[in-house]
From TrEMBL:
UniProt-annotated binding residues for NAD(+): 92-97
Pfam families referenced in this protein's UniProt entry, alphabetically: CoA_binding, Put_DNA-bind_N
KW DNA-binding (keyword) present: yes
Protein name: Redox-sensing transcriptional repressor Rex
Domain CoA-binding: 81-182
Protein keywords: Cytoplasm, DNA-binding, NAD, Repressor, Transcription, Transcription regulation
HAMAP family: Rex
Role this protein plays: Modulates transcription in response to changes in cellular NADH/NAD(+) redox state.
Description of how the protein assembles with itself and partners: Homodimer.
Taxonomy of the source species: Bacteria, Bacillati, Bacillota, Bacilli, Bacillales
Amino acid sequence: MKRDVPRIPQATMKRLPLYYRFLQSFHNADHKRVSSQQLSEAMKIDSATIRRDFSHFGALGKKGYGYDVPHLLEFFRKTLDQDEAARVALIGVGSLGTAFVKYNFQKNHNTRIVVAFDTKAPLEGTIISDIPVFHSSVMLEKLKEYGIELVIFTLPSRAAQEVADLLVGSNVKGILNFTPVPISTPDEIRVHTIDLSVELQTLIYMIRNEI
């Protein structure tokens, strides 16, 4: 059953996990309240942007007081479903995929890679960093068995669309795509693409132009 949630800009949604992370830091330092300016200085985000982001969720703070840290932390914990762990599958266990498997979102995350697939893995599976890795030919069967709704693509670019097509009709609702190619999917499968080369070029441009 879907919850009633406010419609907020995508840029704001991307900042929500950052707010949660920094609020945890303030909470761990025993801060009872925090101002938008304090958050701004810690996160390097304009305070007006923070106040605007928070305004999408109603009155989270009080003028002249700021924000109650435990209350705000609890609010974002529920908003981000931190109590409900997301089971993630990794598709493609090359260099980048192996790095993901070893990291595996260990602390302060509500996501965990529980299974992985690769064309070079044995059919019966193997274990890498405590994660079972199966051959891609049994992917659909195992995705259902493990209750997977989110997958990470770290596979070769040439195979990305083909694998995405295979996921149509499965329980997968989202793809975090680390390949540099655009992926076309039906509306019921969301795709978020992170092109590392584009991100790097953007950073280089900003450095050289002092943006």
